[in-house]
Write a structure and sequence with these properties.
By secondary structure, the protein is of the alpha+beta class. Helix content is 24%, strand content 20%. The longest helix has 19 residues, at 18-36.
């Protein structure tokens, strides 16, 4: 996404297991920071990646609890 300027939508993101949700959200935060700072490159998973500032990441969540089975509570790094 970040290298080619694509947009990605992660629908019902909190259906992931809490550990996976936390790890992926940390990676998204790295990308968001690079976009916000208008960085030319970023270190992503031990690789230097060019940043195309047309990229975008969109995440949808549904509440954890009644009527929304299978949703994880948000880890601290997403609150």
């Amino acid at each position: 996404l970040i290298k080619c300027g694509a947009w990605g939508c992660f629908d019902e993101f909190n259906r992931l297991e809490e550990e996976v949700l936390s790890a992926v959200s940390q990676q998204i935060q790295v990308i968001q920071h690079a976009l916000k700072e208008r960085s030319a490159k970023l270190d992503f998973m031990s690789k230097q990646v060019d940043v195309d500032h047309r990229a975008g990441i969109f995440v949808t969540l549904n509440p954890a609890g009644k009527g929304y089975g299978g949703r994880s509570k948000l880890p601290d790094n997403l609150k």
